[in-house]
């Protein structure tokens, strides 16, 4: 039933998209499971790698503050724990003013909360005796781009593994868990644009800012086109979740968009963004890609919160 409902939601959304313009409807190919290998990615929060943030209690608290505005209740637990609890409660109630938990970056915000929770001791304060490491991977498994009207479609798998270590034994984790998400995103007409490389020093101004290391990689790989989308034309149409993912027996369950606890994941956001780099013009179809896309997905304003394969 879950997969039937997901396919229905995707199909209905594509009908709406095609009805909004006079061009041919999107050709969305079946989900690919073997075309490209799953690529390692990185969660960035406030411009910093999540794993670096998880090593310092003060930085972790600042990252949590960036996820949204909440009121902490008094209690015996430490501030970090009370902030995590308040953010989760607000998110489950579908509260607004939670930019780090809304739209296409919402699943990354939830994973930050889970990882932060594991970084705490029994009193709810940062535990200096343990270390939490996240390993993130993902792949775009469905892709469509219509250069005639700037519309498109993405199907994305994301896997987040959290490992908790005692610092005196950093090679053998005391806890390991993996969450998996399968989500579908429609890009409405007029939202996608193709950016042409500007200069080697500033290749794609006005989009996601790149570090000097990233700029060097762009130049070395010959990327000269960017498929760029930003704003409320990026619409999450389905999110499936598999808690404690086992690749031998996956069990994805659709997160119902009508329930308050899931509403933020389906919200549109003026700061949502999709950023993909190519050599030459972006193709229309997934099967025309020459390799796995180099991409960033998430929120492109403060707090900068993206999952990036770059």
Keywords:
single chain; 310 residues; alpha+beta; twelve-stranded antiparallel β-sheet; 7 helices; 12 strands; disordered N terminus
List the helices and strands and how they pair.
Elements: H1 2-19, E1 39-45, E2 48-49, H2 50-53, H3 57-67, H4 79-92, H5 106-118, E3 130-146, E4 151-166, E5 175-187, E6 192-196, H6 212-221, E7 225-230, E8 234-242, E9 253-254, H7 260-263, E10 272-278, E11 294-299, E12 305-308
Antiparallel strand pairs: 1-2, 1-3, 1-12, 3-4, 4-5, 5-8, 6-7, 7-10, 8-9, 10-11, 11-12
Helix pairs in contact: 3-4, 4-5
Q: What share of the residues lie within helices? A: 10-25%
**Average residue pLDDT:** 86
Strand count, sense and barrel status of the largest sheet are:
12 strands, antiparallel
| Helix count from the secondary structure assignment | 7
- What is the β-strand count? 12
Global structural class = alpha+beta
Number of domains: 1
Strand content: 25-35%
Round the Cα radius of gyration to an integer and report it: 20 Å
Q: How many angstroms separate the termini? A: 36 Å
Name the poorly predicted regions: 1-27, 30-35
